[in-house]
Design brief:
The chain is an alpha+beta fold and 284 residues long. It has three domains: 46 residues, Herpes Virus-1, CATH 3.30.40; 49 residues; 160 residues, Sandwich (Apoptosis, Tumor Necrosis Factor Receptor Associated Protein 2, Chain A). Helix content is 24%, strand content 25%. The protein is built from seven helices and 16 strands. The strands form five sheets. Strands 7, 9, 10, 11, 12 and 15 form a six-stranded mixed beta sheet that branches. The protein has a four-stranded antiparallel beta sheet with strand order 8-16-13-14, with no helix packed on it. Strands 1-2 form a two-stranded antiparallel ribbon. The longest helix is centred in the middle third of the chain and has 27 residues. It is elongated. The chain starts with 8 loop residues before the first strand and ends in an 8-residue tail after the last strand. The structure holds zinc ion (3 copies). This is TNF receptor-associated factor 4. GO terms for molecular function: tumor necrosis factor receptor binding; ubiquitin protein ligase binding; zinc ion binding.
């Protein structure tokens, strides 16, 4: 037997790197390519150390895995190799769970939508409301019963920073004196955060504009109506908690005949502006 040198270089048979003979054994406790058994003892074949983690997480048939319907509420866990059996046996349960989850999510979505809708825009006195799908909404207003198809209400807005809260209300098929032949347009004051420090009644000049959306700016003939709230008009008193009443405005804002002309309706949409003249506002 040869007396070999401890300091001679040898190659690790697993990773192929060179080591001093005396350190080889220590290296192999950590060598990334050193074959070890799967901790789940799934297979007599050994696996390189660096691949064990991926093996257990993604491949090992003996590893315990969650049912893929876990997020829908199935608490089942089993070895990976028997998951298919569980899936086949539980189709009905899984469908029911998924269906319930879907309903929950639908509810959440509609809550989010309504939260989004109540975010109040702050304006500098000008709010422009786009009414899209005009035709369908007009037909609904004509033929559907129910207040929500007769009256469309804009998202709420503040007339200035820390100002009055308001929204627009439109009846595409008219109401009151305008019913059936006009678009009626109103402004409604809503209970706002700053009401207690604002001046009442609301007395700032208001104007409504229906835009002519002609591509030629020079030929546009937008329609505007303005008014000055008078002391004593009940619509401009400090609004109570629930606002059910009609706003203030024009039952005969624009006739349907006029609306068909020019580009008041373009891309099946109307653009309506309300301007509040803040120059006389006593800032809180
Ligand atoms: Zn090695
Ligand atoms: Zn394994
Ligand atoms: Zn399951």
């Amino acid at each position: 037997m040869r007396n070999e040198c401890h300091k001679r270089t040898v190659q690790c048979q697993f990773c192929g790197k060179d080591f001093l003979h005396e350190t080889l054994q220590t290296h192999q406790y950590r060598c990334p390519r050193f074959p070890i058994s799967c901790p789940n003892r799934c297979d007599p074949t050994k696996i390189p150390r660096e691949e064990v983690e991926v093996h257990v997480q993604e491949l090992c048939p003996s590893a315990t895995v969650d049912c893929p319907f876990r997020d829908a509420g199935c608490r089942h866990k089993c070895p990976r190799f028997s998951l298919d059996i569980h899936l086949e046996d539980s189709v009905k349960t899984h469908l029911t769970l998924t269906c319930d989850l879907l309903k929950q999510q639908e509810e959440q979505i509609s809550q989010l939508c309504s939260a989004l809708h109540t975010i109040t825009q702050t304006t500098e006195g000008v709010f422009i409301w786009k009414i899209s799908d005009y035709k369908a909404k007009y037909i609904d207003a004509m033929y559907k019963s129910g207040a929500s198809s007769k009256e469309l209400v804009s998202p709420p807005f503040y007339t200035s920073r820390f100002g009055y809260k308001a929204c627009l209300s439109v009846f595409l098929n008219g109401n009151g004196a305008g019913e059936g032949r006009y678009i009626s347009l109103y402004i409604k004051l809503l209970p706002g955060d700053f009401d207690n420090i604002l001046t009442w009644p609301f007395s700032l000049p208001v104007s409504f504009t229906l835009f002519d959306q002609s591509p030629e700016p020079a030929t546009r003939a937008s329609l505007t109506e303005s008014f000055m709230p008078q002391a004593g008009w009940k619509h401009f008193q400090k609004p109570a908690k629930a606002v059910e009443s009609l706003g203030f405005g024009y039952p005969k804002f624009v006739s349907h005949d006029l609306l068909k002309t020019r580009d008041y309706v373009r891309d099946d949409s109307l653009l309506i502006k309300v301007s509040v003249d803040n120059s006389g506002l006593l800032k809180p």
